[in-house]
Amino acid sequence: MRVVIKPGKLEVGAWTANYIIERINAANPTPDNPFILGLPTGSSPILTYEELIKRHKKGDISFKNVITFNMDEYVKLPEDHPESYHAFMHKHLFDHIDIPAENINILNGNADNLEEECQRYEDKIKSLGGIELFLGGIGPDGHIAFNEPGSSLTSKTRVKTLSYDTIVANARFFDNDLSKVPTTALTVGVGTVMAAREVILIITGYNKSRALREVVENGVNHMWTVSMLQLHERCILACDNHSTMELQVQTVKYFNEIEEISQKNHK
Ligand code: GLP
Question: Of 234, 224, 156, 225, which is closest to residue 199 (Cα–Cα)?
Fold first, then answer.
C-alpha cells in the first residue's frame, strides 16, 4: 500500500488527476483496446474531476477511448434527480469531457430487476477484461462505495441497505432531511474493487481520520470494509494532512520518507 500525503485537498486533487492522466496516456487506449476506469461520487473526487476537466481542455488528455464504470447509485431515485449519481457524474465530469455517451456505465437503481442489473454490470466489466484503475473515496465509517460495515469482503455488485451513519452523512445533499435520503443503493462489492488491477482512494478531511487509521495501522476487518485494500497488490491512498490526524507521527514520517526517496530515485 502506497500512502501519498499532500498538504491540502487541492494538492490531492491535482496529484490524483495527474496520476490518472499519466496512466491513461501511457496505456495509449484505442477503440479496440480501451482504458477501463472505475469512478466514485461524493465530495472527495470533485477537485480531481475539476483538474481532469482543466487538463482535458488544455489538450493533455482525451477520454474518447476510456470506458467508465461508476461505483454505486441509489435505488429508486430518478436519474434526473439532482442528487442521483447519474446527475452528479454528468454535472461534475462527463458533460465537460469528450467521453462518448456509450462509454459511460452507471448502475440503474430504477431497473425492474435489481439483482439482474447487478449481474449485468459485473458481466460487462468482465467482458471488457476488468477494470484497469478504480478511483474511490471512503465514508467516515470506512466504507468503500456503499459497502457498509460488516459487508462481505469478497462481495460483488449487489443491493445494499445503507447504514444510519451513511444516511446521516448524506443528508447534507437532501436538505439535511434524513427522511429524504434513499435507504438502499446498488453498489459494486469490495471484491469488485479488489479485482481492479489498480486502486486509488482519495481520503481527505478530518472526518476520515479514524477510517484512515483503521486502513493503514490496523488489520483487515469487515467493520472497516476499505481495510481489505491492504491485500491489494497496487493500492494508493491519496490523503491530505487533515485526514492523517489519527495516525501515529511515526507512520506519517515513514510514508513521507518513502515518497521522498522514491521521488529522488525518479529524478
Ligand atoms: C458515499 C459514496 C461513497 C463515497 C462516500 C464519501 O457514501 N457511496 O462512494 O466514498 O459517499 O463521500 P464524500 O467524498 O462526500 O465524503
Answer: 234
Q: Is the CB of 40 under 6 A from ligand 1?
A: yes
- Of the residues 56, 86, 92, 143, which is catalytic? 143
pLDDT tens readout for residues 178-200: 999 999 999 999 999 999 999 99
Q: Which residue among 138, 144, 148, 242 is best mutated to probe the pocket of ligand 1, counting the most ligand atoms within 8 A of its Cβ? A: 138
Q: In the 8-state DSSP scheme, what is residue 232?
A: -
The whole-angstrom separation of Cα 101 and Cα 67 is: 10
Supply the range of the domain harboring residue 233.
2-265
pLDDT at 135: 98
> Quick check: 149 and 223 in contact, CB under 8 A?
yes
Q: Give average pLDDT by consecutive 10-residue segment, the chain, 267 residues.
A: 97 98 98 98 97 98 98 95 96 98 98 98 98 96 94 97 89 93 97 98 98 97 97 98 98 96 84
Protein residue with least CA distance to atom 1, ligand 1: 42
Contact 48, 16 (CB under 8 A): yes
pTM: 0.95
Q: Report the domain count for the chain.
A: 1
The CATH number of the domain holding residue 92 is 3.40.50.1360
Q: How many residues does the chain have?
A: 267
Catalytic residue among 72, 73, 117, 132: 72
